Amino acid sequence: MQFSNLILAATTAAAKTAANGQEAPWWYQYSSILMLIFIFVIMYFLLIRPQRKREKEEQKMRNDLRVGDEIVTIGGIICRVVNVKEDLIIAETGADRTKLSLKKWAVQSNNTVHEALPDDDDDDFDDDDDI
User: Fold this and answer.
1) Half-sphere CA count of 124, side-chain side, radius 13 A
2) Where exactly are the structural domains of the chain?
3) Distance CA 28, CA 51 (A)
4) What are 13-68's pLDDT values in tens digits?
């Protein structure tokens, strides 16, 4: 709010000097353009950037699906993954084990929590412990 008050005060002061016959400051001509640029920058950081971050997280979740994961589709169907292909998932649901073919984009959430793999803390370059 302080920034907009500052711009408003500066533009009215510049308008008064222009009305008195004096030359307006150079930035007076560009104040509306600068305000538009400022608004677009704020919109980017408040709207566009968080949406892209959410989309990246969803894409990572869909790419990390494994056999045995319990997923929820965008239609609300809860099922367990049986097979994962490039863009297709075979999942089964219910006690009668009905199989469904789903596209990866239809997965809303993954209810299975995966533990991170332990890092190899020894200083050798191979991962063999047979030495």
Assistant:
1) 6
2) 2-62, 66-110
3) 35
4) 655 655 566 777 777 788 889 899 999 999 999 999 999 999 999 999 999 999 99
Q: Is 108 exposed, middle or buried (0-12, 13-18, 19+ CB in 10 A)?
A: middle
DSSP string, 16-64: HHHHTTPPPPGGGTTHHHHHHHHHHHHHIIIIIHHHHHHHHHHHHHHHT
Sign of the dihedral defined by the CA atoms of residues 80, 82, 84, 88, in that order: negative
pLDDT digits 0-9 by tens, 78-90: 999 999 999 999 9
pTM to 2 decimal places:
0.59
Please give the CATH number for the structural domain made up of 66-110: 2.30.30
d(CA 129, CA 131): 6
- Contacts of residue 67, defined as CB under 8 A and 6 or more positions apart, other chains included, come to 81, 82, 83, 84
Handedness of CA 67, 69, 73, 79 (dihedral sign): positive
Q: Helix, strand, or coil here: 9?
A: helix
54: left (phi over 0), alpha (psi -120 to 50) or beta: alpha
